[in-house]
Design brief:
With 179 residues, this protein is α/β, with parallel strands linked by helices. It is built from three helices and nine strands. The protein has helices at 14-31, 46-54, 109-119; strands spanning 6-12, 37-43, 63-71, 84-87, 97-105, 125-133, 146-150, 156-157, 173-178. It has a six-stranded mixed β-sheet with strand order 4-3-2-5-6-7, with helices on both faces. It has a three-stranded antiparallel β-sheet with strand order 1-9-8. The longest helix has 18 residues, at 14-31.
Length: 179
């Protein structure tokens, strides 16, 4: 729901996002050398970061992709706490090295539920990578293996994150400031 007028201020530039994705891609390439990474994107926001991140992973580390859509927000600014699977995976996870890619982690409720569900599918390994992490908002413990940026509790858009489905296309991460 819109809360009156607002403006967006840049928090993290597109160059900083690109640089950090490249750093994470190198680290992930080292960690997964000799294995195939099965990357799972949490839609919709995660697709922008997963695309950028996967292109930064070394050519000698094969990558497969799958997508899930989960929701705990609806059209609200805060999580409702009810996690719904809107689109499940197309491929089985048993025996695979899985890397879940998220745009942002705040309360951790959605990821806590999702990771538990994915673990039950018997992957060889299961790790989590996020572009943004808001640890001060954490309500459920979630182990984040790769973090782009740790940020304070601000409402952000861009690089896949939205406000009422808008602004995902911003190449930078911006803070929504309500007037």
């Amino acid at each position: 729901m819109s809360e009156g007028t607002y403006h967006i201020e840049q928090m993290i530039s597109s160059e900083e996002v690109d640089r950090r994705a490249a750093e994470l891609g190198r680290r992930i390439s080292e960690d997964y050398r000799g294995r195939v990474i099965h990357m799972i994107c949490v839609l919709k926001g995660g697709v922008y970061f997963m695309t950028k991140l996967s292109s930064c992973i070394s050519e000698d580390v094969p990558v497969t992709l799958d997508f899930m859509s989960v929701s705990s927000y609806g059209d609200e600014l805060k999580s409702t706490g009810v996690v719904r699977i809107l689109k499940d995976l197309d491929q089985p996870l048993a025996g695979r090295d899985v890397l879940v890619v998220e745009d942002i982690i705040d309360s951790g409720r959605t990821l806590h539920y999702l990771l538990g569900m994915l673990r039950a599918r018997n992957p060889r390994s299961l790790k989590l990578c996020t572009l943004l992490d808001k640890p001060e908002r954490r309500e459920m413990e979630v182990k984040v293996d790769y973090t782009g940026f740790e940020i304070e509790d601000r409402f952000v858009v861009g690089c896949g994150m939205d406000f009422e489905q808008k602004y995902r296309n911003l190449p930078y991460i911006g803070v929504v400031e309500f007037d």
